[in-house]
Amino acid sequence: MRPEDERYFRRLEDQLDDAFDVAERAKERGGDPKPEVEIPVAKDMADRVENILGIDGVAERVRELEGQMSREEAALELAEDFAEGRVGDYETRAGKVEGAVRTAVALLTEGVVAAPIEGIDKVEILENDDGTEFVNVYYAGPIRSAGGTAQALSVLVADYTRALVGIEQFNARQEEVERYAEEIALYDKETGLQYCPKAKEAKFIANHLPIMLDGEATGDEEVSGFRDLERVDTNSARGGMCLVLGEGIALKAPKIQRYTRNLDEIDWPWLQDLIDGNYDDEAEAADDGDDADDVSSDDADVDADMDDGADGDDGDDTADDPEGPPRVDTSEKFLRDLIAGRPVFSHPCAEGGFRLRYGRARNHGFATAGVHPAAMHLVDDFLATGTQIKTERPGKAAGVVPVNSIEGPTVKLANGDVRRIDDPEDALEIRNGVEKILDLGEYLVNYGEFVENNHPLAPASYTYEWWVQDFAAAGVDVQALEDDPRIDLEFPDPEEAVEWATEYDAPLHPEYTYLWHDISVDAFCDLAAAVAEGRIERDGDGSVDGNGDDSILILASDDTVADALETIVIEHRQRPGEDRIEIDDWRPFVRSVGFEPRRTAADGAALEREERATTIELERTWSDDDLSDRARTWGHEAAGDNAIEAVNEVAPFQVRERAPTRIGNRMGRPEKSESRDLSPAVHTLFPIGEAGGTQRNVADAAKHAETMSDTPGVVELEVGRQRCNSCGTETFKNRCPDCDDRTTPDYRCPDCDQSLEPDEAGRVECDRCEREGTCVETREIDVNDEFRSALESVGERENAFEILKGVKGLSSQIKVPEPIEKGILRAKHDVSSFKDGTVRYDMTDLPVTSVRASELDIDVGQLQALGYEEDIHGEPLTHEDQLVELKVQDIVLSDGAAEHMLRTADFIDDLLEQYYGLESFYEFEDRQDLVGELVFGMAPHTSAATVGRVIGFTSAAVGYAHPYFHAAKRRNCDGDEDCVMLLLDGLLNFSKTFLPDQRGGKMDAPLVMSSRIDPSEIDDEAHNMDVVTQYPRDFYLATREQADPEDVDIEIAEENLGTDLEYTGFDHTHDTTNIAMGPDLSAYKTLGSMMDKMDAQLELSRKLEAVDETDVAERVIEYHFLPDLIGNLRAFSRQETRCLDCGEKFRRMPLTGDCRECGGRVNLTVHKGSVNKYMQTAIQVADEYDCRDYTKQRLEVLERSLESIFENDKNKQSGIEDFM
Amino acid sequence: MPLEAPARIVGELTSRGYNAEREAVTRLAAAENPNAALERVLEEIPDDALVVRTDHVETALSTAGAAGAVGAETVAGAESQPADSTPSVSTGTSPEDRDPTGGSPVETEGSRSADPAQRSLEIVGDMTGQSTGTGEYSDFVSVFRDRLDRLGAKLRGRVNHRPATAIQDMPGGSEVAMVGLVNDIRSTASGHWLIELEDATGTFPWLVMKDREYADLVGELLCDEVLAMEGTLADDSGIAFVDAMHFPDVPRTHEPSTADRHVQAALISDVHVGSQEFMADAWNAFADWLHTPDAQHVEYLLLAGDMVEGVGVYPDQDEELDIVDIYEQYEAFSEHLKKIPGDIEIVMIPGNHDAVRLAEPQPGFDEELREIMSVHDPQIVSNPSMVTLEGVSVLMYHGVSLDEVIAELPEEKASYDDPHKAMYHLLKKRHVAPQFGGHTRLAPEEKDYLIIDEVPDIFHTGHVHKLGFGKYHDVLAINSGCWQAQTDFQKSVNIDPDAGFAPIVDLDTLDVTVQKFS
Description:
The complex is a heterodimer of chains A (about 1200) and B (about 525). Chain A has 37 helices and 43 strands. Chain A is of the alpha+beta class. Helices cover about 25% and strands about 20% of the residues of chain B. The longest helix of chain B has 20 residues, at about 135-155. The interface of A and B includes residues 224, 1122, 1198 and 1200 of A.
């Protein structure tokens, strides 16, 4: 670690310590469930593992093993430790296995996710039919967050430990094996598995598993056969088990095999068969399998022979056949489940769609896609920073980031102008006049994305980065040209570009390379013919248009010519009224179509002096017959559909394919930046039952009385019983109301009422009655008194807030209420509490590796104060526009988040002063004060918070942070979102005691925090990010071969792991002016109703060249409207009913007609209105967008069904015309 | 209808009044299609034979070898018998009679000499054009009340019933009885069964002890069927212990009506025209056969739904359609219908693949579709409907509820292999689709059109693509097979359809013969 990194972390930790001190002092004074801070700090992964598990000694052992072996091996090593009692204090063999399995899962998930505590319920020892013992592991749903490898390995570790402690293998009964197969299929249908093993495969695994996989029921649907089995408690699908068997063992067999091979104690020879797919039952094979096998293997041989033959033929064919341009295969997957209101931007590989450009912008990488901000505006603002898109390749989804150093979109305006729009301001200006979006511009994807998704490289667009290396390779001294202030290498004048191409024998500059590959050879010849008829004119406006003179190319107006020009995406003006098409930058264009401009002296000296300039004639250098066969038939889908080879034959220079790869995509989720509220929002975790009304208003509850004789405000509530340790007073509070000493939960046996103490594992059981003890009781609480005294104690009046919302009841195990005081102050500052007592703000994750002060709304001084001294080039930091490399735990807040954090800080300050009696801590005046403050980053499904530091603000509705920060929380940036909490809020208000006592309750709660990020201990997806300033020329050439990304040498972050450089050197290839450009919010969020969104979606699809609007309309109908209609209609004809008065539900309409419970009115739950709400819209859309008959007919059939059900045949609704 | 097990062959033979030699049964079981072979044997066996012997089987199997595409059981003239050691019978088959190429149509005018004057065909319970429900809550309530009234009427005479609310007020230990809809079925912690019955006044819980004889019947119960319970009130009158259960049922005294002359009806369903799996060859063979003298007595054709494969019945169905346009599907179906001899009376009801509402009762096709199918002038009625052919009443119902009966009931009581047994339960409950809220969809109408009000002589369903028939209290239950080969979906769930069969019923005797065309 470099000294500056060490300084950085030390600083964060010092800051953390200061806050910790304040929090500890406060906790000692207040009435919190625990008198100390409940989030332990973990310095490294070993600490986290130990803290999450709560098993002493694990951390030390993990650290010992870490340097010596892989994490998987360490897990197995620890299993031995558990078996032999060196780690963990377990008496029973089941306990040892349980400890080993949990530790393995925790280790493999880096101690971040909740799977080891929530995903494994228990381990027990049961008996086989032959009387031997076996191990049964109970999995629960949250094992999902562990991922397949850890799930599979948990089984292996269980088996290994089982062998070590001397328990036999599990022998599944036949009905249990069948049950596994049926259950997995059921779970897949109900919930869905990434990989669902076929029945045969599932049975094969179940037959061979050496331990039993069991678990809790996770769904309502029950299996139909193999019910009520002796050793299976439930008839429902056991989600955890299904995940482990399907996504774990079945999917990760090769990975487990790597470890079983090295272990002598256990033997899983069947894994090989599983991997090979030989799951025929041995029994079957013994009977008649032999012959069958022989036959099939013969068949296989024959097949192989035939394949060989075919291959051979293919080889020959390719030699004979004309080869085509390299192209990726189209994939339609991303269009699946298209929904109304989320537009398609480009169909798979469609012309006019996003063009793949390789590179990583500084706010890019890690499952994101760089889009030009002008394009974001032009797609009617549907794309904003952070909007998730579902994409064709290389991954499945990506978060959109604005990058303006790539080429913008090209549009055709209503006035006939075809313009490329490179400025978002221009985009907004011309947006209303856009008739067609001919091309969406470039789409930046970094190399690492292909590595991460293991996707073969797709042919690269011809871009400046590649050209400049071609240029250098042609022997040009690029450095000299770069240094020449008169020359702009990236955006040269057309004449320069032509000159470089002809003089140096380098391919034509991409700026003037048009998309020749998108027109056919025929269209190209037609275009050449049109140019031959064209003329060069002075447009008289005096501009030189970069041609060195005031001239433009005029072609006769013609639809096919206009089409061709639009397809190759060249800027021009169509003036059909004047029968002309004007092209400004005509020189590279006419050279590309094989014309030589020749100057001829103007005829006649009579012309005036200034017009005496030479006229220019275009001389065609070729005729159609000159084209070779190869050029004529060059194509991908059809022979001759690609004119690039023709261009290369007629042009005096080499022309590369400008954009061979287009990437289809559609909108996924909109971006997110909003506070996380429970629903309904809650200010205090204090129960008030039904007394607070539907609003759960504490003030109402304080006045509530059931009858006239009841005391207002006295409510019967279920709370935990606490007892004062010194004076014995019984209360429900954490501090004794009499002597102010701490209280502890008072457990009793529900049968014999004996006082009980929890054992070391926290279990409370009565020895005599063998029943679980509890401290929860129903008691009368004077909410009015609690509320008033809380107001008084913090010195607030009721008008300090609009409403104070409590909860109906507590869902935690010992049901300790939060002090109302905290809620009063939250309500005062208008922040609400999450289930664990913290105040949270959610943002979509996006990566950024270097930032400028100017875009973060901070100044250089603030950056310097945070320890930033140099810019990315090593220059001293002096002005706001310099780029600095972001430190790994620094984060950028969205405007909304900053505002929310400010209110939280005010709440914390009041809390410290008015409740804990300490000095305020934050004392913020404006948001600039937030810079440098610490926060927690915390992702759903995990149990570890990561400490971050605020560095600045952005108007984009996202949370920008270093990719390593996101990876530490186990997020990537493909539309994932997670939350931030203010540091002291977490320290002061979080308590495990509040967490719901149910499966998954401990997820999304900061059970432990990481104070510093160790790059080796984060989600390794982030290691695949490339960190270079330029991709080599070989890379671009390799993309044409569609090479394996691993075969290309580009430095990725992984290479610096464990070195001094692991926190630095995140270079990028593309800059962007500001990390927040384009619209701040996606139109999806600003448009009102679903209908508005859908109208906008379909309207956009008409404008986009790359989108087939009929297909969009069809998909919206097929995937959204029809399922909705059919589903609702089905629901209608099988619906439940509900009492409008008491809410009682009935499976079927009661024969009495009225509610059987209260006599109230009963009504349907699915009405006509909800069934046919989309019917007319769907029919209209199908009609307007000319959907195919199949779709229209489905709608017709449905419409008639609706009529048949909802209309009386004998009393049809009639129109007025019936009476005329 | 695979009948692999010898035991089932014996059962089948016994049910038709034959004994059999052990070897004969083994041979039959080993035959490629044991059922067809069995039918063939019975076809050929001398009238006076009581025991099926091995040589009967051998003869039948050997003739089968020569059978062409046209069904092996095709009845032909018995003039030219082969020189066979086996005594022949008038209805026996002879290989020489058959056209060796099988499928060529036999357009013999003389073979069809039916006298339309002798025919009669009446329809009862067609609700086409009578759908008055508008999907209101009250419509649903009326349907279920109508169900309780009409099916309850069949039970009220049998027990001394009391309303649910009155029972609560009776003294503990009283003998009580109640008629109601099953509202809920639960098992208790101790393994007994708690059944909640509901009538127009409220609900009352009935406990069936696990060791009582009625416990077995609990497995057959479906929610919302109507039944009567008799029993003893518990001491606190909060629950009653069941002593007897009564179902509306088909009276044991039921005697089926028959036609006065020898006339036959073909009962088919699930044609699925438009599907890639539609078996056009089998259908053509069937149509051709109808033109032969063998089929001269077939004067009625009943079609129990799923004329076409439909559109949008399941996701991405268009990829498996041969004809994607729904109207073209019906046009193609109409073309296939034209091949049926013009003098055969056709009655058809819609099924779940047809272009009508899915919710039951399903009205018959609308005018547009009727127009398309008008050439043969079929009678198009609602699903379900009762058709009376020369005095023989046939209840036609497509059969969607069979899926539910088979799923809910224990396998030995109802399975896809014996679809007719699932039908027995519907007859017993006197309702074609009792359970609400599950698989079957209900469209509320002013009355419950799904009740089996009058006991039919024949109950005809389809839908499950399995052939099966048998008698329940002398009601002939027939589930016709289909004309669609195994689909990918059926393959995935291991359903092997009985495709290309046409059960033919003699309306004068209610005997069934199965013709095979695939």
